[in-house]
Specification:
about 290 residues, alpha+beta, Uridine Diphospho-n-acetylenolpyruvylglucosamine Reductase, domain 2, Uridine Diphospho-n-acetylenolpyruvylglucosamine Reductase, domain 3, Enolase-like, domain 1, 3 domains, five-stranded antiparallel β-sheet, four-stranded antiparallel β-sheet, 12 helices, 14 strands, globular, binds flavin-adenine dinucleotide
Amino acid sequence: MKPAAFEYRRPTTIAAALDDLALDAGARVLAGGQSLVPLLNLRLATPSVLVDINRVAGLDEIAERDGRVHIGATARQAVVLSSDLVRTRVPLVAAALARVAHPQVRARGTVVGNLCHHDPASEMPAVALALDAEFAVVAPDGSPSSVPAADFFLDSFAVAVPAGGLVTGVSFPVAPPGTGAGFYEIARKAKDFALIAAAAQLTVAAGTVTEARVAVTGLGHRPLRMTAAEQSLTGGPSTAEAVRDAARLARGEVLAAVNTRSPAAYRSRVLPVVVCRALTSALAQLEPTP
Ligand SMILES: Cc1cc2nc3c(=O)[nH]c(=O)nc-3n(C[C@H](O)[C@H](O)[C@H](O)COP(=O)(O)OP(=O)(O)OC[C@H]3O[C@@H](n4cnc5c(N)ncnc54)[C@H](O)[C@@H]3O)c2cc1C
């Protein structure tokens, strides 16, 4: 299949990108094209204008500022994954990104494009939610705002970006000292979308969990924070038993209509297992190796 005809624009500034997006209500942003181009080819998306943001200056940054790691809208998944800054300062991002797609896709696909696409079986939205990521959104009139992950993911394939606006980047808080990160996914094939996956981060001081962050993807139309598990861990001992007890508290509405790759009953049953394994792998990072 070939895409329907569209006007192709390639701006070099954010202001010009907004002007191009304002050309028509059917205009769409093009980042890595790894989700959008297949949709175009299948004519499941027929934008009148395609605004390629890859030449907009400064959007490919990966940088630490104000206690957060900022990833720009055109930073490729492969570049983010191989970044020492990302691996050491936001290790959960790297742990999950290694499970996203194949190297060929990651060479072109972007972290921000992946989050904006918001496939409900995608790994990274769970990480964004668990870490309280902040999205830098620019409205059509150029006004910037910061949207927390909890408000960003609206529904399957729907995020809080106004028509004619765009996301310029996403930021994640730097992991505090004494932090371990773990990501566990069940997928039909290696590098496939998740049937269900959990992202977990534990911060420990003197054997006590000071912060627990856990979120799951693949249950419903949005990633879900496992607040009961987080609360049960926080303030308690950083032991395997505490992790197992917390994982048993993992609950969430599991929608049959979402993630048709596996039945809802299956995802519901494996939810505590997936949470336990993500937490266990976070814990293992904290334990001194003999
Ligand atoms: C074979 C294959 C396997 C894959 N496996 C996985 C997987 O296991 N897990 C997974 O999560 N993903 C997977 N993907 C999807 C991949 O991660 C995509 O790269 C990603 O979903 C989209 O990123 P992109 O930069 O290519 O965005 P694009 O395809 O360019 O855009 C995707 C959507 O986001 C919008 N968008 C992009 N950037 C912005 C922005 N800055 N502001 C506003 N809107 C924007 C676009 O308009 C479009 O609607 C796979 C893809 C392929 C082809």
